[in-house]
Structures are given as C-alpha cells and as structure tokens.
Automatic annotation (TrEMBL):
Gene3D superfamilies: Ribonuclease Z/Hydroxyacylglutathione hydrolase-like. It holds the Pfam family Lactamase_B. This is Beta-lactamase domain protein. It comes from the Archaea. It comes from Haladaptatus paucihalophilus DX253. Residues 22-204 form the Metallo-beta-lactamase domain.
Amino acid sequence: MELTDHVYAFPLTFERGDRETVIYPSGVETEGGLLLLDAGFPGQTDDLADALADHGFSLDDVETLLLTHQDGDHAGGAEDLLSRTDATVVASTGDTPAIEGDEDPIKSRGDRYPPVSVDVQVVDGVTFRTEAGPMRVVETPGHTPGHVSLVLPEADLLIAADATVADEDGLVGPNERFTPELERAIESVGTLADFETSQVLCYHGGFVEDADVEATYRSLTE
C-alpha cells in the first residue's frame, strides 16, 4: 500500500482468537535505503519480507529500523529482522530500557519478546531526511512511556503508531484497553492535532484519508 510518494504501509495479518487482525508497519524511502517503522510480532519477518516485495523492496533494503514503542506487536520481530539485515535500530529514550531488556515491557505478563540493542536513541523534535521530505519525531506518551509518532509535513502525513487507532468511521483516539496512562495519551492526540495533517496511518486500523485529528481530540476531551 503506497500512502504517498516514497511512503508505504506493509500490512501484516495475524490470528487473534477466532478472527484475523491486521497491523500496519510502514516504511519511508531515504537516500541510503528504507527506513522501516516497526517490525511486527515475533515470527512475522517472512510475512514482512513478502509485504516489502510487493513494493519492490527486500529485507536488504532496510537501512534503519525505528521502533515507535516497546509493545510486542511493534518490537517483537526486531531480533529476527536484525539477524537478516544490517539495520540500525532507533527508539525513544523512554522506551529503550524495555526494548533492550533492562526493564520488563510495561504490559508484560511475565514473558517478553527477545530484546535488541538500540543504536540511536531519539527525543522529540529529531528529524530524519527522507525522500518524502523531513520526518519529525513527536513524543506521544501515554500508550507507553516513550511512545513516538512521526510527522511528514511535506507529505501531509502522520504516522501515528498507537497514539490513535481507526475504525470504519475514521480516527477514534487511543485504545483505552491497552493504554495505561489514558489522560496522557489524550494530551498526546492534542499534540498531534497541532500539526494539522489530513492523512493518518494508524498501526491498528490502517490509513485514514481526510482525517481530522483536531476533531478527534475534541471528542476525547468534551
């Protein structure tokens, strides 16, 4: 799924109970290769490779793996991916301890995905050069302590990760069940509204065109 020039979603399907669910890792082309946002669950690397191939990429094209946060459906597949690529791992300062194994993931129930080393830690405002224009890191805590989203202003695109989810009606805010600090997460939606992007990719729910992040934020605070 090409979201805009040089930006792609790589949908991955998995079984949850008696139904199929789709998650949406994504990628942005850079001068040096593909910047991949999130790695899926453990065991999904082959599926991810197939999704990359649908757009002419291979795992060898992945130069950077940016983990938006510590949850297993985002960081769980990182170890396997890194065993098959030379990617540099990027994550937020807030979630790096959990990703590296120095802390348990905040939603862990005693088991966890294999930890990986983070090569570069980022904070709010760090900007990557991409073929789709500057991509800015925006700290959006609440879903996890170090959750980040990415904004590409020139592409009019927000890659929200789990800061918001989407359903058939559009954006619906953070998933309350999986968001330990809900009030903080709602404040983060307000932060994202300030960027006035009209296209949003949610890791859960997919791509929303003509999105109104400001209206979503107001609905959460009224």
